[in-house]
Specification:
By secondary structure, the protein is of the alpha/beta class. 45% of the residues lie in helices and 15% in strands. The strands form two sheets. The protein has a six-stranded parallel beta sheet, with helices on both faces. The longest helix is centred in the first third of the chain and has 23 residues. The model has no long low-confidence stretch (mean pLDDT 95).
Length: 370
Amino acid sequence: MSSVLLIEPYYGGSHAAWVDGIKNHSTHEVICITHPDAYWRWRLRGGAVTLAEETKKVIDKVDEFDLVLVSGMIDLSTWLGLTRKYLNDVPVVLYLHENQLNYPTKAGEERSDEFSLINWKSLLAADEIWFNSEFQRQAMFEALPSLLRKAPDFSHEHLIPKIKERTRVVPVGVDLKKFKRIKNNRSNPLVLWNQRWDYDKNPKEIASSILELSREGIEFDVALVGENVRKNPKELLEVKNELGAKVVQFGFLPHDEYVELLNQTDIVVSAAIHEFFGIAIVEAVAAGAFPILPNHQNYPELIPEKWHKSVLYPPGQLVERLREVLLNLNTWRPLVEGLDEEMRKYEWAIIIKYYDSLIETVISEYGHKL
């Protein structure tokens, strides 16, 4: 058993689930340092300083670690500079849930190179970089040259191939034990949207599709659940006001109630313009929901190819596919037989074996006891 220091600068949502999954399932000793999931810009700009201070306090008590695993919302080069006197030569792995080079900007907003360059320096500082999907890894390395060519001199572009050699794809684990389809007495099929209520998950297309099909007279119920990060999610409120009692759930749910809802869901939809993994979709599909997903982002990687034709739709065609499935659900459902069980490969009990094995590999290749 090895000793692992796990640092999460943005402990909330999928980041928190990742930390808890590793700590609860790993055979290694895992000690965590976390900051709350707020002020993401400040986490990247200044969080490394306070995380370094907290690391010193932990080192004083624990004395040694075999490996450090750091989640990506940090200036890793600064953190390493501040901890080098007491951390010594311990291997450091950077885990990227997302990155600022590929995160979509809001309409009218320009991308700041500041945060992208922090990501780049973190890549340089890490002994290994783990991406949650091949989709994210490819997207980031496609974006790096244009970022680095902006340098007035001494471009870093020549370092990209060396960095890529130090990368792996390591999916997040998902706790799926409680997700399993149960019979329900609903007279109408239940359509679920279970993603964060923010622009990158494209709630406008979700809302417009639901409203269009409801106005056509197609009978279905709707559940709009997830973390609301907006003061006025007006397009979703329009769905709630127009559909009334057909909106059976609106807003965030405690976990047990969320599981119960997913286990009764017939169809789960996404129109995301940013998705590097897709935990919410894994949960819903494992619970037996028929997925209707765009044929981009990480979805073609998340869904095995044999189900692509049935599950993935071209851009702008959510409403057409949802209409077809709602009107012929009994015909469409057999087309995804077995997909619910396929999602269970992401169960923490399975995924953690890969994590634990990689931790030992990195330690043996890079690590030295303090």
